[in-house]
Design a protein that fits this description.
The complex is a heterodimer of chains A (175) and B (425). Chain A is mostly helical and 175 residues long. Chain A has six helices and two strands. With 425 residues, chain B is mainly β. Classes of the chains: A mainly alpha (175), B mainly beta (425).
Chain lengths: 175, 425
């Protein structure tokens, strides 16, 4: 009832004082620096990637300690998703094996996902160097980059994923 | 479709015993066509039961279903890895429910890293990126805006994926179709909050992110955010349940469930999508060739018979009401047809109001089972004119490797014992 009366009041106040006709404004301004701890999404162009660097050679130990328990030795999978293999399995009439290597179109997605959601029991706990390194390790297992190739904010978006051109827009989305 | 002039409501209207929906409009049930009722012998004398003679229990702070309904619970498939509890889903037992509103505690849930235990006083929703004024909202602040309610379905993009399998599996409604629910959702129009932040003209997309450990995230077209998106505080009249996004969830009516981000903590306006894991590696549809559809937003027209269905065995020949749900993420349901002969002939079902956009409709069709084999199907049409495809037509367009957005006609075979089984027909 309070709300209804409040709206009615605003409506009658329109003519006299237009400022009253505005939607209530209860949002509080916040500075970008104060949003930074939550601003974790990475664009496919690399926007949002933090400073830091890593190689597959460095990432192997991170993987063994943080990832292998769920994703298997060298990303082979089991009990959770396989991260390696399946390249060439998307062709017609084959059973597709969708992994980082065979299916994911952008390498930035790997960094984004590891940083936001992994390791499962303690997400958002890896430092940026570790995320770059373990991303490099998974890409290297898939034969996409070399063992000593450095991943950082400049090089990661340039990694060409095998299925980069595998996606087309759904033709029946609402306009 | 078989139709005759001057027909009686109890007359057959399509093959294998489908009767006219006029029964519901005009009465005239159980006459010549429907034959005798369920029981021909006289009933037993009425017993005076103990609960009729002694006082019942007292009051409860939060009511629970009868102890005799303890089997009406969600089905929780075992996670692939006991160490990653909270990855997976709890599935709604649609065949044990009626009407269109799902009880809050039975609404399906799909989580990627468990259900966070969020203190609403500590929760924040931030809007930033391509806006003039980045803003942060407390839950208390959100609750002070004008709010509105709408009834809307939510369906996981992965619902019914079992029907992609080459051979029909022996599964029931819950196991196949249980990632569907419908609530009265109440909240603030997202456009109100975006207007307050001042959307920059270059913004085209909005990244929505949850406060769960997976920070589950999706990119949403700005047009949808400004159209009918709601920032929900309530479901079915009470605060949103933790499993459905307490204290704040995004509702994008008609769009696949995953995009309706739960535990909503952040909205970032951008020029393009973020290409997050759940919009690239998942929730994309691998087609017959090597290409995959990406950003498949609306749930297309779909229906399902909830009764009879596997586990709800018919108890002998005679009259049955075939009941089910039809829905479309593109608008209203206009028509549902039901077949008892595997799609050979169709009878129009009665649609029970209210018929609301992007909400399920309950349909009902009277059926006289002769005790012989039958294959029951339902086929929905929405008000854009889109008709639910047959499984063959569905597969011809996209193949059966796509996992997501399976919406083809489903079939239950009824055998001579009255048992229903999932089949492809």
């Amino acid at each position: 009832m309070y709300m209804l009366r409040h709206i009615a009041f605003c409506a009658t106040a329109v003519v006299a004082t237009p400022a009253f006709a505005q939607t209530p404004q209860f949002g509080k301004p916040i500075e970008p620096a104060d949003i930074a701890p939550w601003d974790i999404s990475i664009g496919p162009d690399g926007a949002g990637l933090p400073p830091g660097r890593g190689t597959a050679a460095q990432g192997e130990s991170v993987y063994a300690a943080q990832c292998q328990g769920c994703h298997g030795e060298k990303g082979a999978g089991g009990p959770n998703d396989a991260l390696v293999g399946g390249i060439g399995s998307l062709v017609p009439d084959k059973t597709p094996v969708r992994t980082v290597g065979s299916y994911w179109p952008h390498a930035t997605t790997l960094f984004d996902y590891v940083r936001r959601a992994m390791p499962f029991q303690e997400s958002k706990s890896l430092i940026s160097d570790e995320v770059y390194a373990v991303s490099a390790y998974i890409l290297n297992l898939n034969g996409i980059i070399g063992t000593n190739d450095v991943l950082d904010a400049q090089s990661l978006p340039k990694v060409k994923m095998p299925n980069r051109d595998g996606f087309v827009p759904f033709p029946r989305n609402p306009k | 479709m078989v139709r005759r002039k001057n027909s009686h409501p109890g007359d057959p209207t399509a093959g294998n015993g489908m009767l006219s929906r006029r029964i519901f409009l005009e009465g005239g049930l159980v006459t010549a066509a429907t034959g005798a009722g369920l029981f021909s012998a006289s009933a037993e004398p009425l017993a005076v039961q103990p609960w009729m003679k002694v006082p019942g229990t007292g009051f409860a702070g939060y009511g629970q279903p009868s102890q005799f309904e303890s089997k009406v619970v969600r089905f929780i498939p075992a996670p692939p890895n006991p160490a990653t509890q909270g990855v997976g889903a709890a599935r709604t037992p649609l065949h044990l429910l009626e009407g269109i509103i799902t009880p809050s505690g039975l609404h399906f849930e799909r989580s990627h890293s468990g259900i966070p235990d969020i203190d609403p006083d500590q929760h924040r929703l931030v809007i930033h990126g391509l806006v003039k004024r980045p803003l942060v909202f407390t839950v208390e602040a959100l609750s002070r805006y004008p709010i509105l309610s709408r009834i809307a379905f939510l369906e996981c993009g992965g619902n019914s994926q079992a029907l992609n399998a080459p051979q029909a599996q022996s599964l029931n409604v819950t196991a196949i179709h249980g990632l569907l629910g419908c609530q009265e959702w109440t909240g603030v129009r997202l456009s109100t909050l975006l207007d307050e932040a001042g959307v920059e003209p270059t913004a085209r997309w909005m990244i929505a992110e949850g406060a769960d450990a997976a920070a589950m995230s999706r990119s949403v077209p700005l047009a949808k955010a400004m159209d009918d998106a709601l920032v929900c505080l309530y479901q079915n009249g009470e605060h949103v349940r933790p499993s459905n996004g307490y204290p704040v969830r995004l509702l994008l009516p008609g769009f696949e469930g995953n995009m309706n981000v739960k535990w909503l903590r952040r909205l970032k306006l951008t020029t393009g999508p973020a290409m997050i894991k759940d919009e690239t590696s998942k929730y994309s549809i691998l087609l017959k060739d090597e290409k995959a559809w990406q950003f498949v937003f609306p749930i297309e027209v779909k229906s399902l018979i909830t009764r009879p269905s596997p586990g709800l065995t018919l108890t002998g020949p005679g009259f049955y009401e075939i009941s089910g749900l039809a829905w479309s993420g593109n608008g209203n349901i206009r028509q549902v047809d039901v077949s008892a002969d595997g799609g050979g002939s169709w009878a129009p079902a009665a649609l029970q109001g209210p018929i609301l956009p992007k909400a399920p409709v309950r349909f009902r069709a009277p059926w006289q089972w002769n005790g012989g084999p039958a294959v029951l199907q339902s086929r929905a049409t929405d008000d854009t004119g889109m008709v639910q495809p047959t499984r063959a037509a569905f597969a011809a367009e996209r193949g059966l490797r796509g996992i997501y957005h399976y919406n083809a006609i489903a079939s239950w075979r009824i055998d001579e014992k009255g048992e229903a089984t999932n089949v492809y027909a």
